[in-house]
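Margin note from the TA: students keep mixing up input and output lines. Inputs are the sequences; the output is the structure of the whole complex. Example:
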Amino acid sequence: VPQTIIEKIIASHSADDAYPGATVWLELDVRAARDFGGANVVKNFEAHYAGQSVADAAKTFFTFDCVVPAKDIPYAENQQLCRKFAARQGIKVYDVDAGIGSHVLMAEGLARPGGTVVNTDSHMNIAGAIGCLGQGMGDVDVAFAFRTGRTWLEVPPSVKVVLKGKYKWPTTAKDLALAMLRRFGSSGLLGKAVELYGPAAEALSVEERITVASTATEMGAVAIFVPPNEEVLEWCGGAAGAEVAGIYADADASYGATYELDVDDLEPLVACPPSPANVKAAGEVAGKEIGSAFFGSCTNGRLEDFRAAARIMSGRPVADGVLAYAVPATRRIFGAMLAEGLAAELFAAGFVVSNAGCGGCAQGQVGMTGKGEVQVSTSNRNFPGKQGAGETYLCSPATAAASVLMGSITDPREVA
Amino acid sequence: LTAARPLLIEGRVWPVVRASGAYIDDVDTDQIFHNAHLAVTDIEEMGRYAFGNLAGWEDFPAKAKPGDVLAVGVNFGAGSSRQHAVDCFRALGVVGVVGVSFGVVYKRNAINAGWPLVECPDLPKLELAAGDVLRVNFKTGEAANVMKGKVVPARPFSRVQTDIYVAGDLLAYGSSLG
């Protein structure tokens, strides 16, 4: 039977038939827990499997990224609980200096095209960017995965989204993600495995694929897969230190639906409170005064994203009365920002440049808001209360930078 | 070793319906177990809050008896991922839930807890009234209103669901693998 991308991944990791609706046992290449959820994973494990080992320590990881370094004692205790468990079990910890777990797992070559990964992170499906099946789950599920090396999954139906036309700078992959949210809403792709096609999809860089894949959860999708191109395979091969094969659907695979999305001359977009699907043209909300701007998150915390911000700023300072925060996704990206002078450039413009991690999304160190504060953010969620009592507007790094320059939400074409 | 759990339930049914008799669709986890009580960690304590925020159903904990079965409408358990929304019924001794459809995470939580959850799109055809006896066979996927002699097909347990259910719950299934 011809198979879609997710069906192929499942078939290669399961003895069960992988057809939509089937519930299967799935072998996991990587099982991980963050500092959020990690302590409960350890507690569940100790309560049920006292004295036993994880199935394979070399495939088991902790990735601390929520509150890094810990800003309060309970988080410090939870992180230390995980470290002690890891030491007993011989598990590697990507600690509070490493950055966002989903990114680290890809950058270390642990999450690979065609592979399977779980983590206590609802955005673990970001691995779809490189053709890897990532699944976020709770602490009971992950404790079971630690012990057995497997999980269960209901095979989702696959749908195709074909992009028509192309957009140009300062419209970016974030605007493509927001255009998908505008089209499909928060439940239009509910429970679906999405495959992205068309020239505009094929041309996406690894970083841009990450941006798009990281908003799958906000669309209700299980994951968004982009078939790997040469650049992606080279990137993954470099990360893994070995050649990696791509993962592609069979030509005659069957899809629940095929949608076309016209992205020709797409304009910069903004998702307004109270939901990521409340998308408007940047021009429509232009002039809304901001108090702060958050650059980072699993959606837009890559080197290219900070370069985009700096390109818009082009040596100009952050507007008076505005606070701008830059939080790299990983330590490696932070290092690259230091090496090429990007961190210094943003710092000189007035940015707070902070340790790698999730930032305000997980109520971490940087990017939370107070009542009445208006924030533009390059992250993927703006639900009421998530980052605080303020109002969060989601947009690209380019739009956020333009807004930071002007002190109010600004279409980046106005300042580019 | 625990005795093998039967792949069947039979019990007094509570159809979760409005005064009109129609199933209440989209009952979310805040209606099942309100977030005001999330700090409760002892499962025995959770029963008293079951349906505490669902209009007309606030007295369910006082009325439910061990061995009872829930019958529910479309998208039951929508919303958050809280395990409490499953555990509050287990605490009351409710032996399972049969519904037209369920929220994705709710279904996952129920299956992981080894608490019988059966999808039955034709459930309304059983014309269940409060107090009728509902029997569901997990293996054949047959749902019956024993009192009225009506039978409809339901979705049988998958192998995964059966493995977990027979072991007790997901973590116990992990132990059973040795």
